[in-house]
Amino acid sequence: AGLGGIGLDTSRELVKRDLKNLVILDRIDNPAAIAELKAINPKVTVSFYPYDVTTPLSETTKLLKTIFAQLKTVDVLINGAGILDDHQIERTIAVNFTGLVNTTTAILDFWDKRKGGPGGVICNIGSVTGFNAIYQVPVYSASKAAVVSFTQSIAKLAHITGVTAFTVNPGITKTTLVHKFNSWLDVEPRVAEKLDEHPTQTTLACAQNFVKAIELNKNGAIWKLDLGTLEAIEWTK
């Protein structure tokens, strides 16, 4: 989701860099945002493909075939789709976790060094709730914990697959995601307002640290992006 809150600001930061291509996969087309990204740096080819992460693995593979045929090489995959609404249990798990597992699995078809692939880098967006749950939204928090755990395994498999991985885990960020959302079984009707009382960061500060984390490209890193800072978290064994 390169066109939502943190995603769009991260895309803006990415195109300022020395990129050849930026491919954005999102459910909602936003031609104005794409045009803006193209204008920031005309040297970067920005393209958009409609994609819903909840589609089956076979559909994802089909789309990736198209993209790889077009670009020949893809160096980095950023998995960034996310929803926050603990009333939508199945959808939360489908978008935040299953979709990410599927896109990762699908791209390994093209990257896996056991198949003669060149390897690659996967950047998964977790959340600080992945290691410090907001207990009023246990489904969301658990889906993010699953992302952190899954990514740690991918990182440890790099010697087999040639694919490295790390997570960026934003803290509370001023996005539409936290304007209003439902707690699990309505245990806390004011959960959104309560979160807003906490110190937060802007999507721009988050995006700048996000791109820093991508540039550092540290396999197995668990980056915490909170209050405008970038910090490596130690995974408790």
Automatic annotation (TrEMBL):
EC supergroup of this enzyme: oxidoreductase
EC number: 1.1.1.1
SUPFAM superfamilies linked to this entry: NAD(P)-binding Rossmann-fold domains
Key words, A-Z: NAD, Oxidoreductase
Matching InterPro entries: ADH_Drosophila-type, NAD(P)-bd_dom_sf, Sc_DH/Rdtase_CS, SDR_fam
CDD domains for this protein: ADH_SDR_c_like
Pfam families tied to this protein: adh_short (PF00106)
A cellular component term, taken from the record's GO annotations: cytoplasm
GO biological process entries: alcohol metabolic process
Gene Ontology MF term list: alcohol dehydrogenase (NAD+) activity
Superkingdom per UniProt: Eukaryota
Reactions it catalyzes: a secondary alcohol + NAD(+) = a ketone + NADH + H(+); a primary alcohol + NAD(+) = an aldehyde + NADH + H(+)
Subunit composition and interactions: Homodimer.
Family indicated by similarity: Belongs to the short-chain dehydrogenases/reductases (SDR) family.
Name of the protein described by the UniProt record: Alcohol dehydrogenase
